[in-house]
Design brief:
Blueprint: E1 18-22, H1 26-39, E2 43-48, H2 50-58, E3 65-71, H3 73-82, E4 93-101, E5 104-109, H4 112-118, H5 126-144
Antiparallel strand pairs: 1-5, 2-3, 3-4, 4-5
Helix pairs in contact: 1-5, 3-5
């Protein structure tokens, strides 16, 4: 299968990539990220540890890795409207916390709103541009407080 776009040529800003490093334990980082994103207007309706599941199911020996499925209800509602409900296939917006080494955690996020627009799932119009901008402001606020 040939991809319609060359992933190596995508600017991280085009997908709303945000990342930072936290100098704290893994569990503490998860709690901190959850609290900061909640304070920025996101709920966390879904969360899970792929590393725990993989370590249990296939003895993968993975370092701690945790996914917080963050969702701002107003942005989700607007995005579902402008994408004829298709954006739901990418929800919730994930914020990932993984342990680079003990006491050092990487926090990573990409914008599903921007990605949906890039791949044609969302319209490239003013309504979606407003959602991208509004969601970006919320994510920027959260990352500024991490």
């Amino acid at each position: 299968m040939t991809l319609p776009i060359d992933p190596s040529r995508i600017d991280p800003d085009a997908v709303g990539e945000a990342e930072t490093t936290l100098e704290m334990g893994h569990e503490e980082a998860i709690e901190h990220v959850r609290e900061v994103f909640t304070d920025a207007g996101f709920g966390v309706p879904v969360e899970f540890s792929p590393s725990a599941m993989l370590n249990e199911k296939i003895d993968a020996d993975r370092d701690p890795y945790y996914v917080l499925g963050a969702c701002n209800p107003e942005m989700a509602d607007r995005a579902l409207d402008v994408t004829d409900n298709e954006l739901g296939a990418l929800m919730p917006c994930n914020v990932v916390v993984w342990e680079e080494e003990p006491g050092r955690q990487r926090v990573y996020h990409v914008s599903i709103m921007r990605i949906a627009r890039l791949i044609g799932m969302a319209p490239d119009d003013e309504a979606m541009a407003d959602i991208v901008a509004d969601t970006g402001e919320l994510v920027d606020e959260a990352f500024a407080n991490l």
